[in-house]
Amino acid sequence: MQRVRQRAALVVDDDDAVRTSTAGILRRLGCDPVHVAHNGAAALEVLASTQPPIDVIVTDIDMPDLDGVELIRAIAERGYAGDLVLMSGTGAEMLTLTARLATSRKLSVVGALAKPFRPAALSAALGRDSMESEPDAEDTAPDGSSANVDPISPEELAAAINAGEFEPWFQPKIDVATKRPIGVEALARWMSRRRGSVVLPEDFIPIAEEHGLIDELTFDMVAKVIAAKEHWRELGVDLKVAVNVSMSSLQSLDFPDRFAAVVTDAGGGCGDIQLEVTESRLAGNIVRPLDVLLRLRLKGVTLSIDDFGTGHSSLAQLRDLPFDELKMDRAYLRTARTRVRSATILGAAVKMAGELGMQVVAEGVESLEDWHRVRELGCDQAQGFFMARPMPADELPGWLSAWEEQAAALDDAP
């Protein structure tokens, strides 16, 4: 069972047996001290008076007096910065929607558990970064280790960029109709010499954005992507590469010119690159980002809206911003297996994007069942572990050969 470092925890539930058993699980996981509260009001008293501060709250959402939704609002208003695990016997739909509400209030939701749950379920939740995440390219190192690392200073990050320690790894995107690889997404990996390990984006991207290093990092990735594309071309491989771009970069009106200069200096063309923008970060005033995105399009760059369905103004973004591609957030494909609402939204989004002339990419394709589902829905492309995990540039040609056999077998798969 996964151990959790000494963290103060709070269990909130009006059922004595659930409070006792959940508190016992947390203690076995290493939490200390573990407090209990019989309702939301009592939980707020514990939070206000307890030292050390509470690091983990495990709460039911269906309670008398102050219910779970009200508790979420209250702790968000008080600036609670720890992890939150939601539990409920009211059904998966209510649990999932409440978790989304908590996430939208900037709370760190690390689990949403249907009651009764096993100890292993709570252990797994406390070992994950968010209820929507699963082990994938963005939160698991190549050796399977956690992405969490010791604090990174901006000076260390700047020195690593200057030393060329960042490398793009590539995850293929497959045309669903033909089963042919037609592109790759470049994902930044920090091969830290000082730390002796791989550091993943979730640990260094926020620091790069906060300290004005994100453009330098992006341009370093773009130059290395162009070099990788040239190497592949010499081997007869020509794939479009998607690179993630920060909203911080899209606030700089000179970003398109600087981006084009980097691409040209590296020996490429703007048409070789697709930029992916995460939808959930597009909220607010889009005047500057629209200015930048339009100029990028004029230079031949294609644009993708990533993690579609996680933001709050999706339809307006499709109407007002010049995207060529829509990438459905992996959560929809995962929950579409069991939830009619998610499956309906996924199907409607695919249909709508097609009518707008956009390519639709299904993210998080992890199984043959997922592959069949995205094909039935009419998605244009698929990306996920079922086809390939992210890999260094020099491994891609070998994977392409292996994929031909796997793709041929899909025709015979049930």
- Classified by CATH, the class of the largest domain is Alpha Beta
Q: Which stretches are low in confidence, meaning pLDDT under 50 for 5 or more residues running?
A: 1-5, 128-148
Question: Strand fraction band?
Answer: 15-25%
- Order of secondary-structure elements: EHEHEHEHEHHEEEHHEHEHEHEHHEHEEH
**For the record, what is the CATH homologous superfamily label of the largest domain?**
EAL domain
Largest sheet, spatial ordering of strands: 6-7-9-10-11-12-13-14
What number of domains? Answer: 2
Radius of gyration using CA atoms only: 23 Å
Tell me what the CATH architecture of the largest domain is: Alpha-Beta Barrel
Helix percent reads 40-55%
Count of DSSP helices? 15
Shape: globular
**Strand-pairing-aware structural class:** alpha/beta
Number of strands: 15
Major sheet characteristics: 8 strands, mixed, barrel
Averaging pLDDT over every residue, what do you get? 84
The CATH topology of the largest domain: TIM Barrel
Q: How far apart are the first and last residues' alpha carbons, in Å?
A: 36 Å
Task: Please characterize this protein's 3D structure.
It contains 15 helices and 15 strands. It has helices spanning 16-28, 40-49, 68-77, 92-104, 119-126, 154-162, 201-210, 214-234, 255-265, 287-298, 314-320, 330-335, 340-355, 368-377, 396-410, and strands spanning 9-12, 34-37, 56-60, 83-88, 108-114, 166-175, 181-192, 197-199, 240-244, 273-278, 302-308, 325-328, 359-362, 381-382, 391-392. The protein has two domains: 9-126, Rossmann fold, CATH 3.40.50.2300; 154-410, EAL domain (TIM Barrel), CATH 3.20.20. With 414 residues, it is α/β, with parallel strands linked by helices. The strands form two sheets. Strands 6-7-9-10-11-12-13-14 form an eight-stranded mixed β-barrel. Strands 2-1-3-4-5 form a five-stranded parallel sheet, sandwiched between helices. α2 packs parallel to α3 (68-77).
